[in-house]
Amino acid sequence: MNVSLFNFIFGFSRRNFLIDDTGIFFAQYVPYFLILGFIWILFGQTGWRRRLFFLSESLIAVILSRGLITEIIRFFYYSPRPFEALHFTSLIPESGSSFPSGHAAFYFALATALFFYNRRAGIWYFILSLLIGVARIFVGVHWPLDVLAGAVLGVLCGLFVHWLLSRYYSQNSIPPLGNKTEQAFPA
Questions:
Q1: Report for 2-11, 19-28, 86-95, 173-182: range of highest mean pLDDT
Q2: From residue 179, how far is each of 58, 176, 183 by CA, in Å?
Q3: What was the pLDDT predicted at 45?
Q4: Which distant-in-sequence residues (6+ apart) come within 8 Å of 170 by Cβ?
Q5: Max Cα–Cα distance, the chain, nearest Å
Q6: CA angle in degrees (0–180, nearest 5) for 145-36-42
Q7: Which residues of 130-152 are buried (b: 16+ CB within 10 A; e: fewer)?
Q8: All domains of the chain, ordered by start, with CATH?
Q9: Taking a C-beta distance cutoff of 8 angstroms, is the pair 41, 120 a contact?
C-alpha cells in the first residue's frame, strides 16, 4: 500500500513544469515561510511571559520530535528513500534515511505547539505541514508512511510537551495563558 500510494502521488510529477515547480516550492521553500511566520507570531504575542512560554513549548516540542526521536529512529533503522529504492532521479536533492520524515516531525510539532496558543494559526500550520508532506512525496524523497510517521511523532511530541509544561505551570501557580487569537494572528 505504501508503494501504491507513493506511485499514485509521484505519478503526477514530471507531467507539467508548473505542477512540478509548485511541488518543489512546497517541498523546499514553504518550510522557510513557516519559520518566518512563526517568528512573526512569536513577536505578536503580548507580554514577555507569554512570548517565553510560547517559544519554550515550541522549541522543546520541535527538538524532541525532530532532533531527538527522529534521529534515534534513523540511527537504528535505515529506510532507503523512494528514489534510491526505485532507481529514479528525484525532483530535489535529499540524502539519508527516509523514515520518519524529519520535515513532517518538525512542522507538525510546531503546528501542535502553535495550536495551543493560536488556534487559527495552528490550523493553517497543520494544513501547510500536510501540504509539505505531500509535496515531499510528490518530488520523490519520502514514502507516504514516512510522512505519516513524522506527522504522528510531531503531534504526539507537541501534545506531550504541552501537557508536561501545563502541569509545571499549574504546580507552580502560574496562571494559564489562554488563547489570544486576535492578538497573535490578525485576520
A1: 19-28
A2: 15, 9, 9
A3: 72
A4: 176
A5: 58
A6: 105
A7: bbbbbbbbbbbbbbbbbbbbbbe
A8: 2-184 (1.10.606.20)
A9: no
